[in-house]
């Protein structure tokens, strides 16, 4: 249940309610430090993939937030989520934003840092 003015736009093909990503496995076991480095590299280069910097910033904030806060960030930025795990999103002008799974969840084969 949301605010009186909130709507679920999933029927119209727009914003979907975010959900926890499905478990996934990286091609090889990685440490949390390696995962952190991969995330940093992605977010440092994300604006070069196209789209608007402020949308990338909102996606970055949402990817690191709890689900309810992430939903609020996505909604307030006007981001259209086509996959419940945020892996494919669009801005209001139709620019596509693709996020790899590792930016918002950990693989099941993560190993402890030494």
CATH topology group:
Bacteriocin As-48, Chain A
Output the strand order for the largest sheet: 2-3-4
CATH architecture designation? Up-down Bundle
Structural class assignment: alpha+beta
Characterize this entry briefly.
With about 110 residues, this protein is of the alpha+beta class. The protein has one domain: Ub domain-containing protein, DC-UbP/UBTD2, N-terminal domain (Bacteriocin As-48, Chain A, Up-down Bundle), CATH 1.20.225. It is about 30% helix and about 10% strand.
What does this protein look like?
With 114 residues, the chain is α+β, with helices and mostly antiparallel strands. It has a single domain, classed as Ub domain-containing protein, DC-UbP/UBTD2, N-terminal domain (Bacteriocin As-48, Chain A). The protein is 32% helix and 11% strand. It contains 3 helices and 5 strands; from the N terminus they run βαααββββ. The strands form 2 sheets. Strands 2-3-4 form a 3-stranded antiparallel beta sheet, with no helix packed on it. A hairpin with a 5-residue loop joins strand 3 and strand 4. Helix 2 runs antiparallel to helix 3. It is globular and about 40 Å long.
Keywords:
Bacteriocin As-48, Chain A; disordered N terminus; three-stranded antiparallel β-sheet; alpha+beta; two-stranded parallel sheet; single chain; 3 helices; 5 strands; DC-UbP/UBTD2_N_sf; 114 residues; UBTD1/2; DC-UbP/UBTD2_N; globular
């Amino acid at each position: 249940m949301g605010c009186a003015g909130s709507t679920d736009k999933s029927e119209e093909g727009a914003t979907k309610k975010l959900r926890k990503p499905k478990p996934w496995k990286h091609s090889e076991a990685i440490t949390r430090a390696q995962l952190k480095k991969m995330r940093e590299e992605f977010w440092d280069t994300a604006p070069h993939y196209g789209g608007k910097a402020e949308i990338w910033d909102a996606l970055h904030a949402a990817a690191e937030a709890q689900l309810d806060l992430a939903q609020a960030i996505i909604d307030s930025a006007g981001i259209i989520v086509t996959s419940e795990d945020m892996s494919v999103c669009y801005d209001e002008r139709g620019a596509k934003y693709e996020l790899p799974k590792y930016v918002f969840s950990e693989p099941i084969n993560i190993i402890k840092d030494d």
